[in-house]
Amino acid sequence: xxxxxxxxxxxxxxxxxxxxxxxxxxxxxxxxxxxxxxxxxxxxxxxxxxxxxxxxxxxxxxxxxxxxxxxxxxxxxxxxxxxxxxxxxxxxxxxxxxxxxxxxxxxxxxxxxx
Amino acid sequence: xxxxxxxxxxxxxxxxxxxxxxxxxxxxxxxxxxxxxxxxxxxxxxxxxxxxxxxxxxxxxxxxxxxxxxxxxxxxxxxxxxxxxxxxxxxxxxxxxxxxxxxxxxxxxxxxx
Lengths: 114, 113
Description:
Chain A is mainly beta and 114 residues long.
């Protein structure tokens, strides 16, 4: 079935460093792809999404491009801040034997130090 | 506009006890979901309701039941809790269908001893 594989963490960066969190997927058909962020003690919030190949999602300085040829949706940010410290989840909406499903990666914990 | 609310925030149960987790949304969304989050496992879909009056199994439905009480409310019931059900449970909703952005509640941390 469909699945998402996400770079394992934890990741620790200094403020203003460049961030990449890798995400690859396996899917039949043409799934929509998402990045969610979870701040400590809170539920998940949508960070960005892309619904078709070559789409670029962006929000709050984060970007990810839907690459069908490499089945990837890597999250990037040019200059991280302390406030970006959180857990990031890659996700896809796809198909399973029982119908539509939503699959999350295992999450990547990011800590940004001043 | 509270978004998605969940009660309780924390709960401790003994093995074999039952309980119901409550979820409500005030965004007039059609679809609602229950997930569990375990360390190293990400979020896994337990059940979802595409629209009022319908429910479907997700990836890990065993040991759970759900009720879509009305358009706003979607409850998750553990009939006979087991230690393997110790987890953080999240409710979510979306406008319509699982392909759309989901809005999450703050979660319920459940411990089964």
